[in-house]
């Protein structure tokens, strides 16, 4: 069967993924730096109840508590060698993706999650070197829809390929992968997504695979690579994987739901899972004979994968009416009796390449460090972020929104001479430029969560370089928009018409914007959910607004502490300082009403008195700077948990 399928595969991939491009050597089909033998023994993964669920368990028996603990994987054992494809089959919820994630070193262990068993790569545990030599393709492609195919692969190449290669060599390698994966015709098309038109599903899947093939991985893991694709495209994808394993000498592991019979016989090994327990592990060509030997065979000729899924669901191939749970129990017991002991003996006897090799230290040294320097990571991530967000940052809608608000504000306060009106304008500016940047920034990290988790799990870059690049990329529009707003509003409203007063007012607004943006980043990084972050941000900013010193003059002591953490309170005070001096006077309201000439000191105005004009200016500036640094530090620390594996 094997040689027949080899002919079929070669014919199937000849056009889209030829091993030679323009007469040159293959990039994606070349041998990996170091072949990997993957072994996993008695892998168990359990999830304990959450704290909320745990409270209801306090009154339950030990047996009931044990039942509440969810077992996702239950004693899974197997091995995959270089040049082999392992296909993991099973119904939805059987634990396929969880096992694949564990094999890729991306499954958290700790807290509610408990992973036990032994997973080795050439006889060694997962390491940073192995992380950077492993390709992981998720079921749902995680890419920026705003980038083109070429940009997506070039940026991946610049981040992941070693510093020994020049930039032009990295770009050339990305272009070679594009050609070898049959993506040349769409290389300048946007990747697209659910809300943006782009390349087709099959092309998007090949782009995702191409990102991993750039690093020439020894181990390639794919989660449902054929999901949602037509049969021809699915055949092309699996054919590419077959070529990568056979000619490239890679270890390939994939989950697949219901492959056609033509695809099924491409798999060297098959693992069948049922509710986390293995029902079969062995050669794909022998699976039907095995189940037939234990009394399970289809009554009619059918696709082997359909038959295996029926068994995993407790549905026998014949007309038997046995209970589904009983059938599953029989199959699990048969695996332990007929296959497990032989499999364990095979794992113990097999010598891996690393166990008999003497140059593993050099391999670890090569892949342990970062591919490129911190500064190179920063510049690549900054350029990628600017390209990805250029349509959003410089959107006409956002610019138009600011222009409309600025013109409307200037018109409402047109050439205002009344002190109360001017104070109201300053408070409005402090409030508007508190809310606007916060709600722009609050979505930043929740929107980046999947990408950050994927790329950090692959060891692509330092968190610090990502954080600095992401925040630096947002600065231009964060500073340009309030500057445009103040250029329009300040002069229309008739505030003090001197350059020194204008620029001091502008600097206060810009500082407020940066602090509120920092708070938004911190909230988003902590919550990592857009809806929850919006709610929390609204509550916090409304609290700051009410404690800002404009609405309430006498705040009760038990809640008066809010003013010391209120961004609005410090911004409002500094804006008053830029426009007024304590010794300045204004026409008293009573005198104005009676036509008299009595004047009052500005510092005694009810809306200014609590701000203590002329005092604590330095303290207010320092407080805002501390908040600016503190909130960004909180955001950074909160992001450290994203993409972290143990």
Q: What are the salient characteristics of this protein?
A:
ATP-binding, ABC transporter domain-containing protein, 54% helix, 11% strand, membrane, nucleotide-binding, alpha/beta, Rossmann fold, 26 helices, six-stranded mixed β-sheet, 3 domains, 646 residues, ATP hydrolysis activity, three-stranded antiparallel β-sheet
Instruction: Report the strand count.
Output: 11
- Contiguous low-pLDDT stretches (5 residues minimum) are 1-25
Which sheet architecture does the biggest sheet show?
A: 6 strands, mixed
- State the helix count: 26
| CA gyration radius, whole angstroms | 32 Å
Please report which band the strand proportion falls in: under 5%, 5-15%, 15-25%, 25-35%, 35-45% or over 45%.
5-15%
Task: Indicate the overall shape.
Answer: elongated
Helix percent reads 40-55%
Number of domains: 3
Euclidean distance between termini CA atoms: 41 Å
Sheet with most strands: strand arrangement: 5-6-7-3-8-9
Membrane topology: Multi-pass membrane protein
GO cellular component, one term: plastid
Transmembrane segments: 394-413, 425-446, 467-493, 505-527, 534-552, 617-639
Main location: membrane
């Amino acid at each position: 069967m094997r040689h027949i399928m080899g002919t079929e595969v070669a014919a199937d991939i000849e056009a889209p993924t030829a091993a030679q491009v323009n007469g040159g050597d293959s990039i994606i089909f070349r041998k990996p730096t170091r072949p990997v033998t993957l072994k996993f023994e008695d892998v168990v993964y359990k999830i304990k109840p959450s704290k909320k669920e745990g409270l209801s368990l306090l009154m339950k028996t030990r047996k009931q508590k044990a039942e509440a603990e969810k077992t996702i994987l239950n004693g899974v054992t197997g091995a995959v060698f270089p040049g082999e494809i392992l296909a993991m089959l099973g119904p939805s919820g059987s634990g396929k993706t969880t096992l694949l994630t564990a094999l890729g070193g991306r499954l958290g262990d700790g807290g509610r999650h408990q992973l036990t068993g032994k997973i080795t790569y050439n006889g060694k545990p997962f390491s940073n070197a192995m992380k950077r030599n492993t390709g992981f393709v998720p079921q749902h492609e995680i890419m920026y829809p705003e980038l083109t195919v070429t940009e997506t692969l070039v940026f991946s190449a610049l981040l992941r390929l070693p510093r020994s290669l020049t930039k032009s060599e990295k770009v050339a390698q990305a272009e070679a992968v594009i050609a070898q994966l049959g993506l040349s015709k769409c290389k300048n098309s946007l990747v697209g997504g659910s809300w943006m038109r782009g390349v087709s599903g099959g092309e998007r899947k090949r782009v995702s695979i191409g990102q991993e093939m750039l690093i020439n991985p020894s181990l390639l893991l794919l989660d449902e690579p054929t999901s949602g694709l037509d049969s021809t495209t699915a055949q092309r994808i699996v054919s590419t994987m077959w070529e990568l394993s056979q000619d490239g000498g890679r270890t390939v592991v994939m989950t697949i739901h219901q492959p056609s019979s033509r695809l099924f016989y491409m798999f060297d090994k098959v693992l069948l899972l049922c509710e986390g327990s293995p029902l079969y592990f062995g050669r794909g060509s022998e699976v039907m004979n095995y189940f037939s030997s234990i009394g399970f065979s289809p009554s009619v000729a059918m696709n082997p994968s359909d038959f295996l899924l029926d068994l995993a669901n407790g549905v026998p191939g014949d007309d038997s009416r046995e209970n589904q749970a009983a059938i599953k129990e029989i199959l699990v017991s048969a695996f332990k009796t007929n296959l497990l002991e032989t499999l364990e003996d095979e794992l113990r006897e097999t010598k891996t390449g690393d166990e008999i090799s003497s140059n593993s230290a050099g391999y670890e040294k090569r892949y342990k460090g970062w591919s490129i320097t911190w500064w190179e990571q920063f510049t690549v991530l900054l350029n990628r972020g600017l390209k990805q967000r250029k349509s959003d940052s410089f959107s006409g809608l956002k610019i138009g929104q600011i222009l409309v608000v600025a013109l409307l504000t200037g018109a409402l306060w047109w050439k205002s001479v009344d002190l109360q009106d001017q104070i109201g304008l300053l408070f409005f500016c402090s409030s508007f430029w508190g809310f606007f940047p916060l709600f722009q920034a609050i979505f930043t990290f929740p929107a980046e969560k999947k990408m950050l988790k994927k790329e950090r799990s692959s060891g692509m870059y330092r968190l610090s370089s990502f954080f600095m690049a992401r925040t630096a990329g947002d600065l231009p529009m964060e500073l340009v928009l309030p500057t445009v707003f103040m250029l329009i509003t300040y002069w229309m409203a008739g505030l003090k018409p001197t350059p020194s007063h204008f620029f001091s007012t502008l600097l206060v607004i810009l500082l407020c914007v940066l602090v509120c943006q920092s708070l938004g980043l911190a909230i988003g990084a902590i919550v990592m959910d857009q809806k929850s972050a919006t709610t929390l941000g609204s509550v916090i900013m409304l609290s700051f607004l009410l404690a800002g010193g404009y609405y309430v003059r006498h705040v009760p002591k038990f809640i008066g502490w809010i003013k010391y953490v209120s961004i609005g309170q410090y911004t409002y005070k500094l804006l008053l300082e830029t426009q007024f001096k304590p010794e300045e006077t204004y026409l008293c309201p009573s005198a104005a009403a009676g036509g008299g000439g009595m004047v009052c000191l500005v510092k005694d105005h009810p809306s200014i008195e609590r701000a203590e004009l002329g005092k604590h200016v330095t303290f207010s500036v320092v407080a805002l700077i501390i908040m600016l640094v503190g909130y960004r530090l909180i955001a950074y620390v909160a992001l450290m948990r994203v993409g972290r594996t143990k």
